[in-house]
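Would you be willing to look carefully at the protein I have copied below?

:::
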Amino acid sequence: MTKIYSTLFSACLFFFTFSAYGQAGELPVKTIPSLEVSRYLGTWYEIAKFPNWFQRLCISNTKAVYSVRPDGNLKVLNSCKVADGEIAEAEGAAHQIGAKDSPKLEVRFAPAWLSFLPMVWGDYWIIDLDPQYQVAAVSDPHRKYLWVLSRTPQLDTKVYEELLQRLQSQQFDIRKLELTPQTSMQKN
């Protein structure tokens, strides 16, 4: 009888340890140490993304243009080509969370009069950025979203593969990434 309790206790201990490991095994998403917003401004082309509902109509040529608004926050102008060949645009606003060099931003595309509602703001965390501000990865604290961005519509294959390795080390499921049509990989 003692052997049965011992086995049962060991099995329960293993189960709870395994369950706790599964929950605690996910590391927090890590951002870059700091961001120079002035260097981040301008045009970024989407190279790849996790599929999401709000870009479901985009079929190619997805890009974002960041500029400074009169109030000091950022203007975000997203655009993409849709099935009928037209260019769809969405204008939003973004602001940094915390210090002026924070890589954590919030963005909204809802009307300004709704900006007081927390639910209209989405996390925009820069989690990877090369020193020349040419290639970036953007996500959120829950790994629900992921974008790979480049200053040009083409990205060197080696640079992309190295970025994928860094994303994997942050526990992103890179198998979910979809390449954006009209962008390409090039070998140098």
Notes: The chain has one domain: 37-186.
